[in-house]
Predict the 3D structure of the following.
Amino acid sequence: MILSGWESVFFWIFSIAAIFAGLLTVMARNTIHSALFLISSLVSVAALFVLLQAEFIAGVQILVYVGGVMVLFLFVIMLVNVGSEERGNEEIFNRPRQVTASVIFCGLLVAVLIGALNTGYAGFERRDETKLHESAQARRTRDQDLATSATGASRITNDTSRIGNSLYRFASLPFEIASVLLLVAIIGSVMLARTLKQEASVDDVDPEVLRTEAAQDPELAEVQTEPVT
Amino acid sequence: MFKVFMPAFALLFQEAANPGRFTIAWEKAQHPDLSKFLIIGALLFIIGVAGVLTRRNIIVIFMSIELILNAANLNFIAMSRYLQDTGNVNAVAGQIFTVFVIVVAAAEAAIGLGIVIALYRNKETILIDEIDILKW
């Protein structure tokens, strides 16, 4: 999987962009800025997925993360961050001692991980050198037979069909479990974000609780209960 | 002044005469392999960890968790590609894992942000050092 030519140029561009955008996500003062930096980091990582010939995952990454999750994040930031302009220059990090300890910890992690990855990969490469060479040759001859894409710039890979096959053949049980998980998440987040007023309006709250709460909040007493169908 | 820069010049001339460490590093940089992708993944992971440990705003902490999961995805995809090249049988497994990681991340974000909204309604704050209901 050794990249070369323009691939390596794009690799450096996108990896540096991903790391800088990640750093700015952590360091930006304004929460909306850090959400936007996180979006650019995710898009850069999606470009790295394309370089690794995982086009389907790159598309999923952009559609689900950038199109779904980050829009949810931005909505919540706009709901919750009311009045952050008045509190403009308050501290965005924890206390200095906590920050120092965690930065030292992360620096040690960087040193150890980079050293370990370099030595570990050297062993990997020694083991698989002939195999890598052979498969690069095989891939080149196999890709000759694939159809050219509409732009004519590259060849259409069969990556997506292979993922679909394996997803429904080997991973169909986790796939179903994931659908149940998403259903639980939807219902759970709706339940969590509901107010007492909304619960009272569909008559979904204990009358005892409603009476004690209504004594403090006059708006709640006026809520008309609709009959549950 | 000259004495200070002399070793550097000597190193450059030596570099030009016979390719040493810098030339090898440049050659390696022109052909990124698996280890480069893993290092990028590790750096993104550590940036995420630093964000979780240092920030006060709970939404930024959630975004750092997304960054951590994304670094794991990058490692999965890079390893999957490497296994495809070494002729492994079920080498697409890494990409399938990535799909599930993205699903779990979406579910986690939905639940977490629901909790944040409920918390803001009751406590009027999203700074984690002011959320100390469980501490006494």
